[in-house]
Write a structure and sequence with these properties.
Blueprint (H helix, E strand, L loop, with lengths): L6 H15 L4 H6 L9 H20 L16 H9 L3 H39 L4 E5 L2 E5 L1
Antiparallel strand pairs: 1-2
Helix pairs in contact: 3-5, 4-5
């Protein structure tokens, strides 16, 4: 989001990077907005489902160790996963889940970005005053 061309998404991305690191995602959820936004309905449902399946398979296959501790919810995800399982492979699973979520959300983010850019362009055209400069008797006058 921080590399978005749309001003709104770029601002939300900058504002949410630090809170998002600590699992505080309300700036993104309500600032983008993702809640009640039909564009994000499919990825909002699909990404957690895929991530749940990935983590479930990792546990069932024995790739991930059993959970032995419950870290605070504000612990950054890879670190919290390592603490919870006492295993570094948990961080790999968390990072793979983050990549899966990014892949799922990316096309929908681009659609939303195009809409916002069109809105920004329309607002810019609407607020830009149409002026012309006319020379009258050696003086420059501006007519609206």
């Amino acid at each position: 989001m921080m590399r978005s061309k749309a001003t709104q998404l770029k601002t939300i991305g900058k504002m949410s990077i630090i809170p998002g690191t600590f699992n505080i995602n309300e700036p993104v959820i309500f600032g983008t907005p993702i809640v009640m936004n039909p564009i994000y309905f499919i990825p909002w449902m699909l990404a957690p489902t895929l991530n749940t399946a990935i983590v479930w398979m990792a546990f069932k296959s024995g790739f991930l160790a059993k959970i032995i501790a419950i870290p605070p919810w504000t612990m950054p995800a890879p670190i919290g996963a390592i603490i919870a399982t006492n295993s570094g492979t948990a961080a790999l699973v968390v990072l793979s889940s983050i990549v899966v979520s990014a892949i799922v959300f990316y096309p929908f983010l681009k659609v939303h970005e195009r809409q916002l850019l069109a809105e920004e362009k329309a607002m810019e055209a609407k607020t830009k005053p149409a002026t012309e400069t006319v020379t009258e008797g050696g003086l420059d006058a501006v007519r609206n």
